[in-house]
Design brief:
Number of strands: 18
Structural class: alpha+beta
Order of helices and strands: EHEEEEEEEEHHEEEEHHHHHHEEEEHE
Number of helices: 10
Largest sheet: 6 strands, antiparallel
Distance between the termini: 78 Å
Shape: elongated
């Protein structure tokens, strides 16, 4: 008794190994080529690894224009070639040949294959054998895409639970149970895929802000792109365990910045006052790159989640242009000019926070 459901995914490598007419491979999907009048895909044989295998379903997702028809041909055999009148007709080598597509399709029609039009989920009952060949046609004009192709075996697990007298493939009871068996298998597949929703590499982007809130991070407002969000969540526990330290701030900054970063602390320095209120601690982040207002906003958004309480942060980009930190004032008739090279004499002194470029 066959009871273990198996699934074969038709991905990039198998699509590339097939024969395409008026179509091209795009990752794990195939797309029609505009201007071509005929679209077909011939897949080399799937090998179940055992004789007399009972094939169950073929499922795919198709994005088609209204006036385009999807036609699927399927043929199974215990031999890796199909013979007719003692002559070899259908083999993988023949399917790979650059010959007329209608000639290849004719071989399916002359054999004991099944043909289904207009359906993206078909039953393969009656097709038994170790090898399974598939032909997919698109009849009509327009742009189309086929993806998520999967083949299931065995035929029907529900039918296997009945006494032997009821296990007659193709009869009413078999077709009736197939409806519920297909629904059950689809539901079981969704349940089996639930762990992927909690994997940072595969979780949908819409769930990332919720994951961040679970560990105490804020990512509302769309400040970070999807890749930056995944990197931040992946480092979240380590960053939060060192929250308020220089190491946490530096690591958070390097999630967005690859250039060298320098953090200068100003504890009790003259000038750390604002609106008559003393700041007990302030620090400046120096970044060796051109000024970027969008990046400045993102960095403040991140740093504010990991900086020590009651601190003030300044971000300075050390680009080619002139830059000023807080508490810089211009007198009457003062002007800013392009920076130029200079030198300090022996008696020069630098006070407070000074940046030399």
């Amino acid at each position: 008794m066959e009871s273990l459901l198996k699934k074969y995914r038709i991905g990039h490598s198998r699509l590339r190994g097939g024969s395409l007419y008026g179509m091209e491979v795009d990752g794990n999907s195939v797309r029609t080529i505009e201007g071509e009048g005929y679209h077909a895909l011939f897949l080399c044989a799937l090998d179940a690894g055992r004789e007399d295998c009972e094939w169950g379903r073929f499922v795919l997702r198709a994005e088609l224009p209204r006036d385009m028809v999807l036609v699927i041909h399927a043929l199974a055999s215990d031999e890796n070639r199909i013979l007719r009148d003692g002559q070899e007709m259908l083999t993988d080598d023949f399917l790979r040949e650059e010959t007329d597509a209608r000639r290849k399709k004719r071989l399916f029609e002359l054999s004991d294959s099944i043909r289904q039009a207009g359906a993206q989920d078909i039953l393969l009952y009656g097709q038994r054998g170790r090898y399974l060949w598939l032909c997919i046609e698109l009849i009509g004009a327009g742009s189309a895409c086929l993806h998520d192709m999967q083949v299931y075996t065995p035929g029907d697990n529900f039918l296997q639970t009945f006494p032997e007298v009821y296990r007659r493939n193709g009869e009413f009871l078999h077709r009736y149970l197939s409806v519920f068996s297909s629904l059950y298998n689809d539901l079981q597949e969704e349940i089996d895929s639930l762990p992927a929703l909690f994997d940072l590499d595969t979780a949908p982007a819409a769930l990332l802000p919720e994951f961040a809130r679970w560990i105490g991070l804020e990512m509302d407002g769309g400040f970070l792109n999807e890749d930056q969000c995944r990197r931040l969540i992946r480092s979240g526990f380590r960053l939060l365990s060192r929250k308020g330290t220089r190491a946490a701030i530096e690591e958070a900054i390097h999630l967005l910045v690859e250039e060298p970063v320098y953090i200068l602390e100003r504890v009790g320095a003259e000038g750390c006052r604002e609106q008559g209120r003393e700041e007990p601690f302030a620090f400046t982040v120096l970044i060796a790159r051109q000024s970027d207002e969008q990046l400045h906003t993102k960095l403040l958004y991140l740093i504010n989640q990991f900086r020590p309480i009651r601190t003030r942060v300044s971000i300075v980009f050390l680009g080619d242009c002139i830059g000023m930190d807080y508490h810089c004032y211009l007198d009457i008739n003062a002007s800013l000019v392009q920076s130029a090279g200079g030198s300090l004499n022996g008696g020069a002194a630098l006070n407070g926070l000074t940046c030399l470029q």
